[in-house]
Amino acid sequence: MNTSTSKNSISPYIRFTREEWSDLRTITPLTLTEEDLENLQGINERLSFDEVSDIYLPLSRLLNLYVQATQELYNATNTFLGKHAEKVPYIIGIAGSVAVGKSTTARILQALLSRWPNHPKVDLVTTDGFLFPNAILEQRGIMKRKGFPESYDIKRLIRFLSDVKSGSRKVMAPVYSHLSYDILTDQMQVIEQPDILIVEGLNVLQIPKDEQLRPAPRVFVSDFFDFSIYVDADEKNISNWYIERFKVLRETAFKNPKSYFHRYASLTDEQAVNTAKEIWQEINAVNLQYNILPTRFRADLILEKGLKHRVQKVMLRKL
Length: 319
Ligand SMILES: Nc1ncnc2c1ncn2[C@@H]1O[C@H](COP(=O)(O)OP(=O)(O)OP(=O)(O)O)[C@@H](O)[C@H]1O
Ligand SMILES: CC(C)(CO)[C@@H](O)C(=O)NCCC(=O)O
Hints:
Structural class: alpha/beta
Number of strands: 9
CATH architecture: 3-Layer(aba) Sandwich
Subcellular location: Cytoplasm
CATH class: Alpha Beta
Domain Phosphoribulokinase/uridine kinase: 91-245
Keywords: ATP-binding, Coenzyme A biosynthesis, Cytoplasm, Kinase, Nucleotide-binding, Transferase
Protein name: Pantothenate kinase
EC number: 2.7.1.33
Bound molecules: adenosine-5'-triphosphate, pantothenoic acid
Shape: globular
CATH superfamily: P-loop containing nucleotide triphosphate hydrolases
Helix content: 25-40%
Strand order of the largest sheet: 1-9-8-7-2-6-3
Largest sheet: 7 strands, mixed
Number of helices: 8
Strand content: 15-25%
Distance between the termini: 15 Å
Number of domains: 1
């Protein structure tokens, strides 16, 4: 294959430039129409046709082949065992910093993957729902550590994934509201045997920190993934995206009197930028450096974004 592999043969990854990766779309059977793009722009209006067809369409084809191969392997086991087992969802994990675009990537893939006939039902959960409720975070004095490993109920997330992978017909996931900045006590997301489940969150490739100290056998979130993706970008770009998003939220969601951050709605442009910068520096940049970035090379695929969220490089783990 004419990719950059030869330059870096000891890397566990095959590296593709944007051009090398996008060339692969010519062997992708599905194409996109303007109408498909319009629908995808419901996810993000700044999403360009080129970005979807050059990057996400080939990625959906790769995943389609992987899902198909896993489904065949699963059928082979059942034939051998002479039984008809429950359908087990293929699970894809998506990791990366706050504001790097994990949920946008997840929603684009959800839309594209659901167009393939052998896996039409694609569900999406975010690990936000597995944050401890504010009452617990307050009690533990970690309200300013939202997104850090200690802010998540990892046992609950592992139980959820284990139930999904055991073929349970109905599995409930808790729901987080960015409006109230807390877990919703009166809502649950129901997962009913999708063909694919995408699990998106900054912590999905993390292993407990004390693992080196107590190497007892443990189960990690990523043990349940059939495939994982890390969305990567320079910190400078991510912090700009965070600040930009904060400015948009000030004009939209924060205006709602029910918003936990309603007080930010009245900030001037300059104050909003300064507030977003402070939150970024104190919380999200620290989390990125210490807890998220170190998980990057556990991913099966790394999407490296440049300015304006344009993917510049793709790295695919060699099998
Ligand atoms: N492919 C893209 N093209 C253009 N803009 C994008 C793209 N992906 C994300 N964005 C923008 O970047 C910002 C962050 O995206 P998103 O909310 O998807 O990030 P996230 O990683 O899920 O964040 P969080 O961890 O805070 O939930 C948003 O303002 C979004 O509109
Ligand atoms: C809920 C998380 C942790 C992850 O999505 C994040 O959006 C968050 O709220 N972080 C805390 C700091 C901040 O408000 O950006």
